[in-house]
Specification:
The chain has 10 helices and 8 strands. It is α+β, with helices and mostly antiparallel strands. It has 2 domains: 3-123, Arc Repressor Mutant, subunit A, CATH 1.10.10; 137-288, Multidrug-efflux Transporter 1 Regulator Bmrr, Chain A, CATH 3.20.80. An 8-stranded antiparallel beta sheet has the order 1-6-8-7-3-4-2-5, with helices on one face. The N and C termini lie far apart (49 Å). The relative contact order is 0.11.
Length: 291
C-alpha cells in the first residue's frame, strides 16, 4: 500500500469518528466507542487522532460543544448559562466558565452581551476533510423575492454581529417573522479573494411588502433577482459551505456548459443553528446562470 493511500484511509476513518461525535454530541463519548466506529486500536487511537487533527479527541469534543454553547449564548436567550453549561457536558458552571474563557477569551456572560466574534474565529479550530464530492444540482427558474436586508461591510469573521442585529429586528418588529419567512444570505465576494475590509454580505429575510427604511436597525429593501439558478443543497456545518460553492463553479458549470449570470450567489437557510444540530443544517446554494 502506498503512503498516500494509507494516509487517505486514516483520514477517512478519522472523518467517521468526527462525524460520529457530531451526531452524538449529547451522549457520553468514550474512547472504546470511538475506536469501534472506525476500527482503530485503542492503544494508538489518541496519538493517531492528535497527530492528524492537531488536537486531542477530548479537545475536539469540547471544542464542538463550546461552539454550540457560544451560539446558544447569543441566539437563544431563553436558555440560562447553567442550562448551556449542562448541555455542553459540564457539571458545574465554574468549570464551564473557565473552559469557555480559556478558549474564547471572554466569559460566557460577557460573550452573551458583547460577543467578540473576531477573537472567537481566531480561537476556533475549524477542521476540514477534503474529499471528492458529487452533488445533485437542480436548475430552477424562480420569481424575484422581495427581502429586507442588513448590509454587512467588513471582515467575514464579524458577520455574526450583523446576523444577531438582524434577528433582533425580526423579533422586535415581526415584519419578517423567522418561523414564517424565508431566511437568506446574499454573497457579493469570495471571502478568500478580497481584503477583509472590502467583504460584502447581505443578511436577508423575505417580506410581503417594502418596510420603512428610516429605522434604527439600518434595514433596507432589496430584491433577489428572478431567473435561472443552479441549486445545490449543502448539508451540515456552514463553515464548509465553500465546498458546495466551489463544486458549482469548478465542476458543475464546465460539465454542463453553463455560464454564471450577472447577479450574486445567495444562500437559502432552510433551518438555523443551534436550533438544530450542526450536522442537520440544510442550506440551498443558488448560483445564477444565464438564460
Amino acid at each position: 500500500m502506498s503512503q498516500n493511500t494509507s494516509h487517505a484511509r486514516i483520514v477517512e476513518r478519522l472523518a467517521k469518528v468526527c462525524e460520529y461525535i457530531d451526531h452524538h454530541l449529547d451522549d457520553v463519548l468514550n474512547v472504546e466507542t470511538l475506536c469501534d466506529v472506525a476500527h482503530f486500536s485503542k492503544y494508538h487511537f489518541h496519538r493517531q487522532f492528535s497527530a492528524m487533527m492537531g488536537i486531542s479527541v477530548y479537545q475536539y469534543i469540547q471544542q464542538i460543544r463550546l461552539k454550540r454553547a457560544a451560539y446558544q449564548l447569543v441566539f437563544n436567550s431563553q436558555l440560562t448559562i447553567l442550562d448551556i453549561a449542562l448541555q455542553a457536558g459540564f457539571e458545574h458552571p465554574e468549570s464551564f466558565n473557565r473552559a469557555f474563557k480559556k478558549r474564547y477569551l471572554q466569559s460566557p456572560s460577557k460573550f452573551r452581551l458583547h460577543p467578540d466574534w473576531d477573537s472567537w474565529h481566531q480561537q476556533h479550530h475549524h477542521i476540514e476533510f477534503r474529499k471528492e464530492i458529487t452533488m445533485d444540482v437542480v436548475v430552477k427558474r424562480i420569481e424575484e423575492i422581495p427581502v429586507a436586508v442588513i448590509e454587512h461591510h467588513g471582515s467575514p469573521t464579524r458577520v455574526m454581529e450583523t446576523v444577531a442585529k438582524f434577528i433582533t429586528w425580526r423579533k422586535t418588529t415581526g415584519l419578517s417573522p423567522i418561523t414564517q419567512s424565508r431566511s437568506f444570505g446574499i454573497v457579493y465576494h469570495d471571502p478568500k479573494s478580497v481584503p477583509a475590509e472590502e467583504f460584502r454580505f447581505d443578511v436577508a429575510g423575505e417580506v410581503d411588502a417594502p418596510i420603512p427604511e428610516d429605522n434604527a436597525f439600518g434595514i433596507v429593501n432589496k430584491t433577489i433577482r428572478g431567473g435561472r439558478y443552479a441549486v445545490a443543497r449543502h448539508v451540515g456545518s456552514r463553515d464548509a459551505i465553500g465546498d458546495t460553492v466551489y463544486y458549482l463553479y469548478q465542476q458543475w458549470l464546465p460539465q454542463h456548459d453553463e455560464e454564471p449570470n450577472d447577479a450574486p450567489i445567495f444562500f437559502h437557510y432552510m433551518n438555523l443553528y443551534p436550533e438544530v444540530p450542526e450536522h442537520e443544517l440544510l442550506t440551498d446554494v443558488y448560483l445564477p446562470i444565464a438564460g
